[in-house]
Amino acid sequence: MKTLQELTRPNIWKLKPYSSARDEYKGVTASVFLDANENPYNLPFNRYPDPMQHDLKAALGRIKHVKPEQIFLGNGSDEAIDLLFRAFCEPGCDNVVAIDPTYGMYQVCADVNDVEYRKVLLDHQFQFTADALLAAADERTKLIFLCSPNNPTGNDLLHAQIESLLTRFDGLVVVDEAYIDFSSLSSFATMLDRYSNLIVLQTFSKAWGCAAIRLGMAFASPDIIGILSKIKYPYNVNQLTQQQAFEILERYDEIEHWVDTIKMERTNLMKRFEGLACVLRVFPSDANFFLVRVNDACALYNYLVGEGIIVRNRHSVSLCGNCLRITVGTAQENERLMEALANYVD
Length: 346
Ligand SMILES: *Cc1c(COP(=O)(O)O)cnc(C)c1O
Hints:
The relative contact order is 0.13. The protein contains 13 helices and eleven strands. Helix 6 (about 105-110) links the parallel strand 2 and strand 3 (about 115-120). It is an alpha/beta fold and about 350 residues long. The strands form two sheets. Strands 1-7-6-5-4-2-3 form a seven-stranded mixed β-sheet, sandwiched between helices. It has a four-stranded antiparallel β-sheet with strand order 8-9-11-10, with helices on one face. It has helices at about 5, 10-15, 20-25, 55-65, 75-90, 105-110, 130-135, 160-170, 220-230, 240-250, 250-275, 295-305, 330-340; strands at about 70-75, 95-100, 115-120, 140-145, 170-175, 200-205, 215-220, 280, 290-295, 310-315, 325. It binds pyridoxal-5'-phosphate (PLP). Pyridoxal-5'-phosphate binds near residues 76, 176, 206 and 216.
């Protein structure tokens, strides 16, 4: 791996971060706060939140088996993705490599930051090889984006290939694990001590049922986390979000129960899709959604919209011609979908 200084944009490496009032006072027990120009009335919303989310990171670290200094928290994983570009990729000069198809935000953030986005097509099992990604990379490649389980294809990527890439690539490897709770494979977050170029993304938005609070996590070496923390907005995770995150962490057993139920529903739903006349192929899934190839994705999509049921049309995505992406819902929602499909005449 190149040194972190070689990988970081020079302006970011040199940057002296904004120091907020709540940053400067640390640890000391105090009860009178006259440092941040806050209004003394309207408790508890009058106070700025903890800019580094210490308590939340401590609680999360226990659940995820990582150290608090290996955690970055942001306004959704999308903030972490954007900050990775801003920290490591010089606009108009550096590039990133990603599998294709995958989550659309990597390319959007690349385009916003004027960073070349190089796509490497997955094979027909929706898998990649480290060789193919490395062949697309050059000395200006700072980041490689992987997503496992992948969106929209739904499958786990091969862990042996991910490890091969981590060993051989001299830049940073981002493994987006937004759907890891639905997979039978273990998280790469346990490998942080082995690979200093590894960045794992997870989110409160999927298995944890908290898309509304906008909270995403990045796990990486303390040095990488330090760089992301230095360039984030000082109060990027608001107090309401931090509070709600604590509450859901206390209900961790409930999350496990949701995940089990969703996986069971996924199995049922996929089996029933296999029997439909309009379905050509149901692709295997390690996530809370699955991809299905039908004879006419646009026609079926429009029919379902007419029935008040929204799925995701992925027809125009690489390797996903005539494919719909179906999120697994509650038993009742899934039943509504199957009833509508039973009445569909193509
Ligand atoms: C849904 C999703 C996310 C979550 O993004 P948030 O900003 O945390 O809501 C991240 N990555 C992938 C691949 C996703 O599908």
